[in-house]
Amino acid sequence: DSGVTQTPKHLITATGQRVTLRCSPRSGDLSVYWYQQSLDQGLQFLIQYYNGEERAKGNILERFSAQQFPDLHSELNLSSLELGDSALYFCASSEGGGGAFYNEQFFGPGTRLTVL
Amino acid sequence: AQSVSQHNHHVILSEAASLELGCNYSYGGTVNLFWYVQYPGQHLQLLLKYFSGDPLVKGIKGFEAEFIKSKFSFNLRKPSVQWSDTAEYFCAVKFSGYSTLTFGKGTMLLVSP
């Protein structure tokens, strides 16, 4: 158990819908990272938040957005869902913001999203 | 753009065989290097990491990796695999100036008993 929790574990929805994925980081960790894992694209970084502020952006679609709340949990919002959005979405957390000194990222169990 | 490539998508070995998984990255600057493992149905776990110093890094569960700067490589090795090593292995790189990790596409290792 990494200490990072994600809910829900599984999500099945239809095209065009909107869903929210939730992540709670390890106690004391200020950074939250979101990744998408799919068979064709592999594990891709989406976005990072550090202490409530957006720190880095990766291959995140405009239909996707995220935020980090004052209690440091984060939510990833996916809207206008398409079949191709079906994937495993991982959240990770680290103590620091990354920067010059790397802080190990601890991964959650993931949310499996299926879009029908 | 920086990228990370893993040579093998699937590897099948018998127990006690030796393992070497390749990882290369495309960047000439300072990097931090990592290998993660994902057991079936579980989250990613860090196997080992390289920041600086001795290019031969030892990790958990008998794994090691060697950083060869001239070849931009960070190959993962284990002298004798076990059935319990069946998992997907990801190479990841933190490129200088970036706060996040870039992952390779992963190598699925199947160890037959």
* Total number of strands of chain B: 12
Order of helices and strands of chain A: EEEEEEEEEEE
- The helicity of chain B comes to under 10%
Q: From the structure provided, what is the oligomeric state, counting identical versus distinct chains?
A: heterodimer
Q: Mind explaining what this structure looks like?
A:
The complex is a heterodimer of chains A (116) and B (113). Chain A has strands at 5-7, 10-13, 19-24, 31-38, 42-50, 53-57, 64-68, 74-78, 87-94, 106-107, 111-115. Chain A is mainly β. Chain A is globular. In chain B, a hairpin with a 5-residue loop joins strand 5 and strand 6. The relative contact order of chain B is 0.34. In chain B, the strands form 3 sheets. In chain B, strands 2, 5, 6, 10, 11 and 12 form a 6-stranded mixed beta sheet that branches. Helices cover 0% and strands 53% of the residues of chain B. Chain A binds chain B through residues 2, 4, 31, 33, 35, 42-45, 48, 50, 55-56, 58, 90, 92, 97-99, 102, 104-105, 107-110, and chain B through 32, 36, 42-46, 49, 51, 90, 94, 98-106.
